[in-house]
Input
Amino acid sequence: MREMTSRERIFTALDGKVPDRVPLMEILIDKKVRESLSPGISYNDFIEEMNIDVICMELWSKDFQNIKWIDKDKKIYKDKWDTSQRLTEEFIPVPVKPPRINTIDDMLAYKPPDPDEPHLLDEIKETVKRFKGKKALCFVGEAVLAVSEYLRSGLENLMIDFVTDPKLVKKLMKVGEEYYIELYRKVIDEGVEIILLGDDYAGKNGTFMSPVHFDEYILPGLSRIVKEIKRKGAYIIKHTDGNIWKIIDRLIDTGLDALGPLEPVVGMDYRKIKDIYGNKICLVGNIDVDLLCRGTKEQVIEETKRMILEVSTKGGHILSSGNTITSAVNPENYMAMVKTAQSYDLRNM
Output
């Protein structure tokens, strides 16, 4: 039987079917891990060398192309949302000082970023040109919650607003909704085929907000973003950390093609999700990041085999870590996961 291309493999899984082997992707692969395995090569070269099936283009990396330093020595810069961020050893920066938005008047005076900024699309155009027709082309961004959290100086303030200032919350959510709809239209026009939406809705004990508040504040904007992406012809993957059992039906009903990576340590058992939803939703993940960091090579191989046998063989599965490949991941363990996944033909299982 003919071996599928990476692109064919991913789209087969996203359509709920069984490809030749389980496809591989990661939202992020830290530079330290990449350098340990393949010193001196670029991120795109690494994806090609490792035969990963999805090339992810990160929203955050676009900030660094047009960086506005506040304190270069301390690695603090201002991002497009007018939030001060500090670069660390990890890929994603840490917010230091968000804009002061406390009232509706503050919100009305706030100027959101422009999705038409040329530097946002430059890297996408180059990556699409290189991998079009070979790899599945994915853009990693956000939806409505993350932006509102940035603008309100953190999740705690926003959760209080859910109760005390509903009008402000809805204004905040609308800013993210409008920005990302326009941005995703543009990246899809450039050739992006998959949009991966971030925004974490939960911790290990459940969702940060009640299902009622999720329905009131988050679901409308998320649903519209999903609708517009689908209308443009792209697939959608929704990531969130934590235990999302209380809202998983709501997420699936928006029309998402896939959920994940989901954390395996908080009750999001992929076997259970498959038993309940079958191939109504594709799953991405979910080899535990802690196992990849501190486990043995043999344990990683066994867990990858188990995931392939119990989830991948049923169709609608893309293998990845349960979040991202951070700098703490043992490079040999990551390689073991990749090579194990690439060694099994699902059509013969």
Notes: DSSP finds 14 helices and 13 strands in the chain. The radius of gyration is 20 Å.
